[in-house]
Design brief:
The complex is a heterotrimer. Chain A is of the alpha/beta class. Chain A has two domains: 30 residues, no CATH class; 256 residues, 3-Layer(aba) Sandwich (Rossmann fold). Chain A is 36% helix and 17% strand. The longest helix of chain A has 15 residues. Chain B has a two-stranded antiparallel ribbon with strand order 1-4. In chain B, strands 2-3 form a two-stranded antiparallel sheet. Chain B has a single domain, classed as 2-Layer Sandwich (Alpha-Beta Plaits), CATH 3.30.70.20. Chain B has four helices and four strands. Classes of the chains: A alpha/beta, B alpha+beta, C alpha/beta. Chains A and C meet through strand 2, helix 4, helix 6 and helix 11 of A and strand 2, helix 2, helix 3, helix 4 and strand 10 of C. Strand 2 of chain A pairs parallel with strand 10 of chain C. Bound molecules: iron/sulfur cluster (3 copies). One iron/sulfur cluster (SF4) binds next to helix 2 of chain B.
Chain lengths: 294, 99, 385
């Protein structure tokens, strides 16, 4: 066998395959992401989490918005929905409420989730909607060509901040925490094992889970700011990350090439929206109430 | 399987690389815990250098390379797992042995 | 299929159009609604929120209309019959998801209780000025269905049809009420569940691997599935092939867009529905829809009393527009008179179908109230000269 084998040939000859493969729509590969883009690495972590979680994959649904990360849904061998820009969370809310048996994962980028979709993010967290949100944060708009995002740190240049960004960015874990998410974590793609573990915990958690996955966009963020390639950005993650589980999310804001606090910041219990609805209506309406989705 | 790997039967690990899928990002090379991968001297068809297992004796089959690779082009496997699964046939090595 | 008795409030009721529309949705099997408050439509979701805990289903008030309009699409793909309810300003916000529903072929009902516009306009007063917005409001080419009830009883009856059509054709169906119909209280008879025909979703019997989410097998409307059924579907708002995979090229676009239009246009004859009164042999035909048809009836009666041969044609289904019917009538009728509570929207369709073979007289009204019947009578008289 030469080095140009396919997955099927490998299975046939060795009885093994790349562990990511069964979770991907192999007829859609190769994917569109640039060399050194970290989105594919987060996908590896997600597939490890799926395999560890022992969920019935027929009941796991992935929903993405628009953008480079928005393409993740289309590569996953799950029921997958590529929705409109910013609206993955409300679409996922509809899926979850219409069939509470589903495990619904939202997988999208920082611009999609926190700019155009920011309103949905805060309200889904407030309601403790039972969704796991994976936010791949690369500080920029990739698909449209490197514009400033609500996560862009102060300083770096973006196509719509040609003289450097002067807008204060979101501290996403703090935002999610303040709005009521029951699980909040941040890892970078350097931390593949921890990120996979967080995703597994997120899949097992009931309620609104927010996982920020920092990931390089070499094409539009790193190069424009003379930060080298994807791997240089991951080396930066490695060198400047400090693991601080349980850190006060107020303290975990990011600065340009500064220190990165990573870890599991929040893990608490709170009734989900559906649990609250069933509990409340059951109490108020008694026998007249038809319990829903239980 | 290369001879070298055969000699280490049961111990350590090896990697499988889809050379033509690799985009040369070097994540696998830089973050392999045992530093057993290096870039090839040659290029693949897309014009990228790709990883080569230059210190196979150090590979543990931990699959960190697989977890890092954003293009699903490499993965690592423990030899004992590989042997357990391998069918009767003994195919040629999949990994280019020289950089 | 008959309606599920749990959702059917059989009996004679004295309720307004908004409440009747909600009962129609429940009878049709709607079990998931996401909405956002907006006058004059809110009573529909208020009633749904009160009724659904007993019927068994789910209502959520979302953070805005954008969220509501896509939450229902998620709900549809999870297997429920779904609806959202709004008025003009909210409908403007929902337009992107009208397009998403169209391209993903998601069955859903958008209720629009029309009020005066543009913008915030007249929150508590009527208009019929969203007729072109529902036809053309989302970008790109698509063909929705729009129904126009003119009484609370019709709000109930036609709502069932709206849900049935959404399932049959997998398109967004617009339920074009207006403030007067929404707030008008009349007798509404709700029959037994066994007398209500409902269309259930055509779910595929194909196994995973055999099923293509947009495979049509030669028909125009693909079979559906739902998340969780093991088909591992991919659904995208991008132009896609039969597998649902993005296919961004002119050929795939040609195939998809033509089918999206054809599935409605090819069935236009079955879809169109008009109510006529004295159109046969008339010189002049008054064309109306919604609340305006009730005012026009008085105007037609007055003109007839003056000796004019006037017919009345009411559009029950506004989209697709019954162009063929108008083309036929154009050879027999001298003039069409088109009153509507907007500055001339559906009249454009009448003109297009009639193509100069009869006079077409617009009787516009900017909204805030209904026409004075005398204004319509006057237009009939002038058209008859
Ligand atoms: S533009 Fe940036 S985020 Fe998008 S695929 Fe390329 S590297 Fe990744
Ligand atoms: S399997 Fe582990 S040790 Fe072997 S090359 Fe990959 S990362 Fe290095
Ligand atoms: S991580 Fe993957 S794409 Fe990057 S160099 Fe290694 S094999 Fe190639």
């Amino acid at each position: 066998m030469s080095s140009e084998w396919t997955n099927a040939e490998l299975i046939q000859q060795y009885g093994i395959e790349n562990p990511v493969m069964p979770y991907l729509r192999q007829d859609r590969l190769p994917h569109i992401w640039c060399p050194g883009c970290g989105i594919g690495t987060t996908v590896n972590c997600f597939t490890r989490a799926l395999s560890e979680s022992k969920l019935n994959l027929d009941e796991v649904v992935i929903v993405s918005g628009i953008g480079c990360t928005g393409r993740v849904a289309g590569y996953m061998n799950l029921d997958s929905f590529h929705t409109t820009h910013g609206r993955a969370i409300p679409f996922a809310t509809g899926l979850k409420l219409a069939n509470p048996k589903l495990k619904v994962v939202v997988y999208s980028g920082d611009g999609d989730l926190s700019a155009i979709g920011g309103n949905h993010l805060v309200h889904a967290a407030r309601r403790n909607m039972d969704l796991m949100v994976v936010c791949v944060n690369n500080f920029t708009y990739g698909m449209t060509g490197g514009q400033v995002a609500p996560t862009t740190p102060l300083g770096p240049t973006q196509t719509t901040m040609p003289y450097g960004n002067f807008e204060t960015p979101f501290n996403l874990p703090f935002l999610a925490d303040a709005c009521g998410a029951v699980y909040v974590a941040r890892w970078t793609i350097y931390h593949v094992r921890q990120l996979a573990k967080a995703m597994k915990e997120g899949l097992e958690k009931k309620g609104f889970v927010f996982i920020e996955a920092m990931s390089p966009c070499p094409t539009l963020y790193s190069r424009r700011n003379r930060l080298g390639d994807g791997v240089d950005q991951v080396k930066y993650y490695k060198e400047r990350s400090i693991i601080r589980n349980g850190a006060d999310t107020k303290e975990v804001g990011l600065s340009f090439q500064g220190e990165i606090v990573v870890g599991k910041f929040v893990d608490r219990e709170r009734p989900t929206w559906l649990e609250s609805m069933n509990e409340h209506l059951g109490r108020v309406l008694g026998d007249k109430f038809t319990p829903y989705g239980v | 399987m290369s001879d070298q790997e055969g000699a280490r039967k049961g111990k350590g690990g090896t990697v499988f690389v889809r050379v033509e899928v690799c985009k040369g990002c070097s994540f696998c090379i830089d973050f392999c815990p045992t530093h057993c991968l290096e870039f090839s001297h040659g290029y693949n068809k897309k014009g990228y250098h790709y990883p080569v297992l230059t210190r196979p004796e150090d590979c543990t089959g931990c699959d960190m390379c697989g977890q890092y690779c954003p293009d699903f082009a490499i993965f690592g496997v423990r030899l004992k797992d590989l042997e357990a699964r391998q069918r009767a046939a003994t195919p040629e090595p999949l990994i280019p042995s020289q950089p | 299929m008959h309606a599920d008795p749990k959702g059917v409030m059989t009996g004679v009721h004295f309720i307004d159009g908004d409440h009747a529309a909600c009962e129609g949705a429940l009878a049709a099997g709607c079990r998931f609604v996401a909405g956002y408050p907006i006058t004059p439509s809110t009573e529909v979701v208020e009633r749904f929120a009160a009724r659904i805990p007993e019927v068994g289903g789910c209502f959520i008030q979302m953070e805005d209309e954008i969220a509501s309009s896509i939450a229902i699409l998620g709900g549809a793909w999870a297997g429920k019959k779904v609806m959202t309810v709004t008025s003009g300003p909210g409908l403007s916000l929902m337009m992107e998801h009208v397009g998403y529903a169209a391209i993903t072929e998601t069955p859903c009902v958008f209720v629009d209780v029309q009020r005066g516009g543009p913008s915030t306009g007249l929150p508590t007063l009527p208009a019929q000025a969203d007729m072109m917005q529902v036809r053309w409001g989302s970008h790109g080419d698509y063909m929705p269905i729009a129904l126009s009830p003119s009484s609370p009883q019709e709000c109930f009856d036609l709502m069932i049809r709206a849900f049935n059509l959404a399932e049959l054709y997998r398109v967004p169906v617009f339920f074009m009420m207006d403030e007067v119909v929404g707030h008008m209280t009349e007798r509404v008879v709700i029959p037994e569940a066994s007398e209500i025909e409902v269309v259930e979703r055509r779910l595929t019997a194909k196994r995973p691997g055999e099923y293509k989410v947009y495979g049509t097998d030669g028909s125009l409307v693909p079979e559906m599935t739902k998340a969780g059924d093991g088909h591992r579907i991919h659904v995208t708002g991008l132009t896609h092939d039969e597998r649902g995979y993005p296919a961004m090229n002119a050929m795939a676009q040609d195939k998809l867009v033509r089918r999206l239009l054809a599935k409605i246009n090819a069935h236009a004859d079955q879809l169109v529905d008009v109510q006529t009164d004295g159109v046969e042999g008339a010189d002049i035909v008054v064309v109306s829809f919604g609340i305006t048809s009730r005012v026009a009836t008085a105007a037609v009666d007055a003109a007839r009393a003056q000796g004019y041969k006037v017919g009345h044609l009411r559009l029950i289904v506004c989209w697709p527009f019954p162009a063929k019917l108008f083309a036929e009538l154009a050879g027999q009728v001298k003039a069409f008179v088109v009153p509507e509570i907007n500055m001339g929207q559906m009249v454009l369709e009448v003109e297009r179908a009639v193509a100069g073979r009869a006079r077409v007289v617009s009787v516009p009204h900017p909204g805030g109230t209904v026409h004075e019947p005398a204004v319509i009578t006057q237009a009939i008289v002038e058209a008859g000269r």
